[in-house]
Each structure stands twice: as C-alpha cells, then as structure tokens.
Amino acid sequence: MPPKSKDKGKPSQSAWQPPPAIEDLFTTLNKHIQRSDYEQAVKIADQVLGVAPADEDALRCKVVALIKADSIENALSTIQSAQKIPVDFSFFKAYCLYRQNKLDEALVSLKGQERISETMLLESQIFFRMGKMDTCVDVYQKLQKSKIDSLEINLAAALVLGGRASEVQGMMEANRIKASSSFELAYNTACSLIERNKYNEAEQLLLTARRIGQETLMDENLAEDDIEIELAPISVQLAYVNQLLGRPQEAMEAYTDIINRNLADESSFVVAVNNFVSLKGTRDVSDNLRKLDRLKEKDAQGFQLAHGLEKLSPKQRETIYANRVLLLLHANKMDQARDIVATLADTFADSVVPVLLQAAVLVRENKAGRAEEILGQFAEKFPAKSKILLLARAQIAAAAGHPQVAADSLVKIPDIQHMPATVATIVALKERAGDIDGASSILDSAIKWWSNAMTEHSKLDVIMQEAASFKIRHGREEDAAHLYEQLVKSHGSIEALAGLVSTVARVNVDKAEGYEKQLKPLPGLKGIDVDSLEKTSGAKHGEGSHLSVAEVQEEAKKEKPKKKRKRKPRFPKGFDPANPGPPPDPERWLPKRERSSYRPKRKDKRAAQVRGSQGAVVREKHEAGASATNSSSSNSKSNQAANSNAAAEQSKPSFKSSRKKSRK
Predict the structure, then answer these.
(1) Quick one: which of 58, 112, 118 has its CA closest to 90?
(2) I need a labelling partner for 511 at 20 to 30 A (CA). Which of 273, 278, 526, 646 fits?
(3) What is the per-residue pLDDT across 490-508, written as a single tens digit (0 to 9) for each?
(4) Which domain holds residue 336?
C-alpha cells in the first residue's frame, strides 16, 4: 500500500512575532495600577522583566503590586531574588516583615535607611506593634512637622496605650484639632476618657463617633455589612462602657450580638469574646472555655491564638491567655493550665503576669511555700515591678498561715509601708506571729515617717492613737502615756486626754488626777449624788441627746402608758366561730401509746409455738403422737431450746413499737 501523501492544505507555523515594546508594557502596567488591578499588574511586570531582567522600575512595580494584593510571601521572595541587582529594597522588605509580625527583623532591615517621613512612620508602627509606646510617641512627635494626614489619630492611640491618656486633650488643643473631625479620632479620644474614668463623656463621644462613621462610610458607597464591620471597634467599646457603668445586662447583650452575627474585624471579635467571658465570670466555666476555643489556632495542639491576630497589643494577648489559665484552674484542668503558663514566660518576658499565674497554679496544687519562694525571687530580680509580686506573696502567705512571711513582704514595699491600712495589717500579722517587738518597731517607724512627711493630709494622729492602744494592750503603759502626751500637746484631742488619764492612772494616780482636771465637766452632772449612784445596779445605755436627770424625770412623767391594740382573732379557712363544733382532742399532740384511750393489741400466744419452716408443727405433733419413746434427757434439751427461743423472741422489739418510740 503506497504511503499517504502529505496534506498540502495544512497551514504552516506562524512566523515569530517580536514582544511588544517596553514603553507599551509600562503604559499597560500603569493602567492596571490605576484600576487597582494588581494581579494583572504583576503579570505585566513579569513581561517587562522577561525583556529587561534588571529593570529597576519593573521590579519596584512588581513588589508594590504584590504587597497591595496582600501577597506578602511572594513579595519577599521577589526581593530575595533581586539581591544581585543593585537596587535597595530594604524599606519594602521591612514592611513585608512588619506585615508578617517579624518585628525585630523589620527593625534590622530599617537600619541604615535615610530618616525620611516614610521610614520614620513605618518605624513608629513597628514600635506600636511591639508595645513600646513611649518610643512610638517620640517618633510621632518628630513627624508632626511633616504634616502627615491622620497622624494625630495614631498619636492619640499610642498615648492611650502608653498610659498617657491625660496628654491626649493637650495634644489636640496644641494642634487645634477637634475630636469630631473624624470617627477614628473620636474613638481614640473616647478611649482616653475611659482611661481617665470619665465613662459618661466617653459614651457620648462613642455615640458621636458611630454617627460620623456611618455618614462617612455611606458617602463612600460601602455596603451595610462592610460599614458594620468597619465600626465594630466602636460597638465593642460601647459595650465595655456599659459594663463599667454598671449595666451588665446591656453589655452582655451587645457582646452576644457581636459574637453571634460575626460582623466584626478579627481584633474586635477577640475583644468581644474576652470581655464576654470576663463579664460572665465562673458561672459557666465550660461555656466560657468553648468561647475562648474559637480564638485558638485550629491545628495547634495546645491553646495558641490564631494567626492574623497580630493587631492585638501584647497587653490584650496576655489578658486572653491569663483568662484562659484562670478558667482552667476553676475547671480543675491543671495539666492544660501548666502547659500555657510554661509558654507565657518566654512570650511575655517583660511582664509579671506569667509569674503571678505560675504562683496561682502552685497555690491550686497546695504548694504555697513554693509559690512564695518564686514570687520572692522575681521581686528581687525585677525591683521596678516588685510591688504587685510582693502583694501577691503577702496574700498567699497570710492565707497559708505564714504571717511572718506576709509581714516581711509588705515591709519591702516602700510606696505603701507607712500607710495606715498597711501599718495595721503588718502589726496584726506580726502579733499573730508572736513578734511583739517587731510590731512595735513598725509603729515607731511609721510615727517617725509621718512626723517628717510634708503632706496636707497627715495621718500622724491616727497612727499615734493606734500605737498607744497597741502599747497599752501589751503592757507598755509608759510608752503609751508618752504618745498620749504628744497627742494632747500637738492636737489637743479630747480622746487623747481621756486616754492619757486612763493610762497614767495605772502607773501614777496623782498625776492622772492632775490630767483629769483638764477634762471639761459633762453637762447635767452637778446635781447627781455620786455615792448613791455607785450603789445602784447601773444604767442602760441610751442613744440620742444627753439629758440631765431632772429632764429625764420630767419626760417620764409626761409619757403615758400605751394602750394595747386589740386585734381580731384569725380563724382557719372555712371555720365558723358561731358553730365551732366539737372541741378538739386535748391529747392530739401526744403519741398514741401515751393517750388515755390507747389499748395495746393482744398478742397471739400460739405464735410462740411455731418453729422452723412450714409443716414443722404438724410433723412434730405427728411424731409426738406416734412415738413416746424419747428419753428424759432429750426432752429436757428440747425444752431448754424452746425456752431460749421464746426468750429471744420476747427480747426482740417489734417494728411497730420501734417506730412509735422514734416518734416521741
């Protein structure tokens, strides 16, 4: 068979066409960027790089388009592949690392960059995410001269989170900005008012922020759901203000609505869940744990916050972990609580919360001594943060019955060790520990400190009064008298003079009589015979104004005896007093066997003759009638057995009689 001939009609391959000119590609690239079509912009940039691999503008456009398209990983790989090209992408690399929450690496990438406004703004954002608010505020204040739009919004947020909420109002007045200029600034200003405990003003400003936000976003033609998501932080903060204002029901309803509808950004949703759990408390621990489970990474073995929550501040993330641990302790899930606490020490190395949680776990495990040891070590290691650690140690030690450890912990807190409440607590703890001299020295040092303190609200008289009472209680009358003398000289207190008289009377009666003459005579006591008063049995203490004896007698004469009010008797329902019927039995409250009408039941004597199982009596009678050849010894034994059985039955009480006895 001859071979087939080739198709002559088949078209030949098209001729090679040259790529479009770079100028045309850049024109197309610019159109896609103007339309915010960043995926197509990346493709066109790749075409340009296919023609000119070292084109700096094409590389820059591709990196920016990838960042705009939220393809951060591809943007980083593009920057890595362009290292051989002499183009500095350090700024873009730092931004990508910032988006990936690799903050330390982002700062390293920014080193050596020119201190222009863009670089400083990114640096401030990195510091904000790291929780270094003071450094962040310093950078923002340097940028104020650059007149960057919305800079005051970020500055207000940094001041609030940095514990400087009182400076927000001054910053706005200095820049001549009103809180209502934007809903973001109104929201941040309201947060500063919350930090200053001005909850009503904050509520009004939050409502204003929500109204301004709705108007602004509707002008931008956003959908209703998108507007609600954008304004979710304001809704969560309004619920929090209701919680602070003592409206738990309204706050709970708001949190529940935000959680169920799920129309909120990730950060606002997390805050709503955490606040809902904290407001609910330990009423339903299992449900609260399930709520917090919605925040964790799905594939993680333990509890770990999901990726994408980088916008949460370190303080917010720490609070969520702390609430999780406390709920686990209430649920008695010690292993899970221990695992979380072990990871928190590295995650929040600059915070004392992991140490406090570790102590809480140890106390729950009945290891109070170990908890006291850990808190004491960290207090010595971090003296700037030792106050809360020492307070926790004092509380744990006092609850565990270690008063000396608790007192020593409070003594190491210089800010409060001379306050009256702290002094009273330390003295009580040392008294419980038997350290009377130590308690006395605490009072003496407090008196010395308040004597030298230059304050308007001095507590010297309170401390001295309590110190004198303490010394009297422990038999140190001379020291107590000295303190009372100082109080009388410095304050002229009548209570101190009375205390001085009673104290000195125990040591020197003549001297006490001299002090007693300084007391003012009581009104109405001139006509009283002291000798006859001493012979009486005493008088009852009466509240009200102090009256003389004559006035009291006149008042007694004026008083008339009160007539007793007659009340109609109350009868049971359906009772007719005209026809009361037969009188009730006077013995109705007595047990039946104690009543006169009681007759005990007659016992059947034949019951005592029944022995053994059914048919035993018949068989015994048959055997007795058929044969009478038993010996006398066997008869005597059977009689003894019968007598013993009868005695046993008589000694055993019946169920009815025992029940009647129990009713008596």
Answers:
(1) 112
(2) 526
(3) 766 677 777 777 777 776 6
(4) 281-304+312-365
